[in-house]
C-alpha cells in the first residue's frame, strides 16, 4: 500500500486492576493491562513493534518496554497530562498509516492512591516552580484552584449555576452505578454535591475527581492485522491535538477549552459532525471540564452547557448523549492521566461489550460512532479521537 493509505483500528483494550490496589507496583499494572489487551485482541506480543507510555520512571517508554520484554522500533513518550493518550493515539495512527509501525501498544499504570496512603508521595505534589510557573506558584495557585477560577468565569459570563455543575457529578455517579468496576457506585444528589466540604470555590469535594490506583492498555493495528484478531475492529476515523497555554495569564478565554480546536480538527478529519456522535468519553477531573468540553466539541453552543447538562442528557439509560458511560473520573477511577481509560470505554461501547451500562440505539444495536476527548494540565492541551465501527 502507498505510505499513509493504511486504515488503523483498535483491536485490543483492557484495564488493569483499578480502585484500591495496595499490593502491587505501577510496572506490574502496566504488564497486567498489556497482557489483557493483547489477549483481548488475540495477538501475540511479538507482533508489537510500537510502544507509547508516559508517567513512570525516568525513560518511560524504554523502561516499560524492557519490563514488558518488548524491543519496539517506534516509541512515543509525549507527556501532556490527561490528554497524553489521545495525542499518543493520534501519533500512533499516523505512524501505522505511514508504514512506520504495524501494531502500537499504548499502556499506563499508576498507584497514585496507594502511594499517598503509604506515604511515598503527598496529595499536594507540585508541578514545579521553574519556567513560566515561577510567576504563579508564589500566589498559591493549585491545579484545582485554576479550574475553579475558570468555572467561576463561565458562571459569571454565561449564567451557569452551581446546581448545573453539580448535575454533572450526579449523572456520572448514576452511570457508575451500572459499572461493577467503578470505585464509587452509591447514588448522590445535587444537594449532596452542594453540601460537601469546599475544596476550591465553587468546587466542593464531589465536583472533583476521585483518586485511585489502576492501569489501562490499548492496541492499535494496521488494517491487514484485523483479520487475525478475535475482536471486531473499532476504526480510528479522525484525530486532533492542540496546545493552548501553561500560564493562566496566557489563556485568552477561561470559558474556552483547547477541545475547541482539537475537536474541530478531529471531526473534520473524520468527515463527521458532532450531531452524529452517539456517546462521548470526556476527561472529567472536575465537573466544569465536562460542561465546557461539551460546548467546545460542538454538542451545544457556547454558554449553553449548563442547560444542556441539567436535563439528564448524559445518562446511559435515558440520555440523548451518554457521557462518561463508565462513571468517569468523578466516580469510576482516576489514577492520574486518565485519558487512556476514555479510549478503553469508547471501544467497549462500540463493540457492545459494556454490560449493564451499554448504550443502545432504539433498535437495540450498539452505537456506531463515539468520541474520546482528553484534557491535560489546567486546560493546557487537548487530544480528541473520533472512533467508529
* Broad shape: globular
Q: What's the number of helices?
A: 12
Task: List the secondary-structure elements in sequence, H or E.
Answer: EHEHEHEHHHHEEEEHEHHHHEE
Measured as a percent range, the helix fraction is: 25-40%
Low-confidence segments, ≥5 residues, pLDDT <50? none
Cα-atom radius of gyration? 19 Å
Question: Residue-averaged pLDDT, rounded?
Answer: 95
Question: Reading side by side through the largest sheet, how are the strands ordered?
Answer: 3-2-4-7-1-8-11-10-9
Strands, count: 11
By oligomeric state, this entry counts as single chain
State the distance separating the first and last CA atoms. 22 Å
Largest sheet composition = 9 strands, mixed
Roughly what fraction of the amino acids lie in strands?
A: 15-25%
What would you call the structural class?
A: alpha/beta
Could you characterize what this model shows?
32% of the residues lie in helices and 17% in strands. Helix 6 (162-176) packs across helix 9. The protein is an alpha/beta fold and 389 residues long. The longest helix is centred in the first third of the chain and has 16 residues, at 26-41. The protein contains 12 helices and 11 strands. The chain has a 9-stranded mixed beta sheet with strand order 3-2-4-7-1-8-11-10-9, with helices on both faces. The chain has a two-stranded antiparallel sheet with strand order 5-6.
Amino acid at each position: 500500500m502507498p505510505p499513509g493509505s493504511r486504515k488503523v483500528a483498535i483491536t485490543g483494550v483492557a484495564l488493569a486492576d483499578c480502585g484500591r490496589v495496595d499490593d502491587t507496583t505501577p510496572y506490574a499494572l502496566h504488564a497486567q493491562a498489556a497482557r489483557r489487551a493483547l489477549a483481548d485482541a488475540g495477538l501475540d506480543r511479538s507482533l508489537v513493534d510500537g510502544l507509547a507510555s508516559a508517567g513512570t520512571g525516568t525513560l518511560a517508554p524504554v523502561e516499560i518496554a524492557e519490563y514488558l520484554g518488548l524491543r519496539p522500533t517506534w516509541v512515543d513518550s509525549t507527556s501532556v497530562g490527561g490528554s497524553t493518550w489521545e495525542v499518543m493515539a493520534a501519533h500512533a495512527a499516523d505512524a501505522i498509516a505511514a508504514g512506520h509501525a504495524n501494531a502500537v501498544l499504548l499502556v499506563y499504570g499508576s498507584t497514585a492512591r496507594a502511594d499517598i496512603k503509604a506515604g511515598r508521595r503527598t496529595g499536594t505534589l507540585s508541578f514545579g516552580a521553574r519556567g513560566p510557573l515561577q510567576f504563579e506558584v508564589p500566589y498559591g495557585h493549585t491545579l484545582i484552584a485554576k479550574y475553579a477560577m475558570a468555572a467561576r468565569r463561565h458562571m459569571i459570563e454565561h449564567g451557569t449555576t452551581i446546581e448545573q455543575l453539580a448535575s454533572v457529578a450526579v449523572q456520572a455517579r448514576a452511570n457508575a452505578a451500572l459499572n461493577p468496576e467503578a470505585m464509587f457506585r452509591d447514588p448522590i444528589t445535587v444537594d449532596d454535591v452542594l453540601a460537601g466540604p469546599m475544596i476550591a470555590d465553587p468546587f466542593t469535594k464531589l465536583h472533583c475527581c476521585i483518586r485511585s490506583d489502576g492501569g489501562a492498555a490499548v492496541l492499535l493495528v494496521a488494517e491487514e492485522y484485523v483479520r487475525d484478531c478475535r475482536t471486531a475492529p473499532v476504526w480510528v476515523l479522525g484525530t486532533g491535538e492542540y496546545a493552548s497555554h501553561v500560564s493562566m495569564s496566557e489563556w485568552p478565554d477561561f470559558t474556552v477549552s483547547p477541545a475547541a480546536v482539537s475537536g474541530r480538527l478531529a471531526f473534520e478529519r473524520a468527515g463527521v459532525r458532532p450531531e452524529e456522535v452517539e456517546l462521548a468519553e470526556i476527561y472529567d477531573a472536575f465537573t466544569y471540564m465536562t460542561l465546557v468540553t461539551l460546548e467546545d466539541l460542538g454538542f451545544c453552543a457556547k454558554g449553553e452547557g449548563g442547560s444542556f447538562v441539567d436535563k439528564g442528557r448524559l445518562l446511559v439509560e435515558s440520555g440523548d448523549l451518554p457521557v462518561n458511560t463508565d462513571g468517569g473520573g468523578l466516580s469510576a477511577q482516576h489514577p492520574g492521566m486518565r485519558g487512556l481509560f476514555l479510549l478503553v470505554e469508547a471501544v467497549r461501547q462500540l463493540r457492545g461489550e459494556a454490560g449493564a451500562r451499554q448504550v443502545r440505539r432504539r433498535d437495540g444495536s450498539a452505537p456506531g460512532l463515539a468520541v474520546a476527548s482528553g484534557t491535560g494540565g489546567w486546560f493546557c492541551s487537548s487530544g480528541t479521537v473520533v472512533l467508529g465501527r
